[in-house]
Design brief:
Length: about 180
């Protein structure tokens, strides 16, 4: 269970991964699909569970929630970020400035998913190609380590712009003492 307070509205995260809201609802802060309108100070003193997101799906599996001034932020167990309430300055991150009366997923911050990385021989002796697929607009960093327990401390290349649909970067071949990973 966790709680957070915004300007005249509050949020609680239930142990079952649900979000409960109460307080004012001028611009959709309560996430229930309605708004009372600016200047209409109608109290909502009883906590109510947010049932649905803006797409009509159950709003659940939340691991973190924060009530801000006039909007809210939540993180789901898959790592996706969701916001609702005031959006006049684009606070909800959905590429609009329309107040959101139900949670919307923040654009470009989707759930973390595994990225298959292929290692292929390169024509240049002592080198291999790292090959992976990605979408446009993504930047990567290629890191390495000589000892996995110590973590990835070296950087081979940084700010590698994705070249969809397939990306290829040539790196020195490992000799069993060097390991690579891609990092967003």
């Amino acid at each position: 269970m966790a709680v957070s307070g915004g300007d005249w509205h509050s949020a609680a995260l239930g142990s079952d991964g649900t979000v409960w809201k109460w307080g004012r609802n001028d611009v959709g802060q309560l996430g229930n699909g309605t708004a009372d309108g600016a200047g209409n100070y109608i109290p909502h003193p009883f906590p109510a569970k947010i049932q649905l997101d803006n797409y009509g799906a159950n709003f659940s599996n939340i691991v973190m929630v924060a009530a801000r001034d006039w909007h809210n932020i939540a993180v789901k167990s898959d790592g996706s970020v969701w916001q609702w309430g005031a959006n006049d300055q684009g606070q909800c991150g959905d590429n609009t400035t329309i107040d959101r009366w139900r949670p919307v997923q923040v654009t470009g911050l989707g759930p973390r998913v595994g990225l298959p990385l292929k290692i292929q021989p390169n024509a240049q002796p002592g080198h291999v190609d790292l090959v992976w697929s990605s979408a446009t607009g993504e930047y990567f960093r290629i890191e390495y380590t000589t000892g996995l327990p110590g973590g990835f401390t070296g950087i081979v290349q940084t700010n590698v712009l994705a070249t969809p649909p397939q990306n290829v970067v040539t790196v020195p071949a490992t000799d069993g003492n060097r390991y690579y990973r891609l990092r967003f």
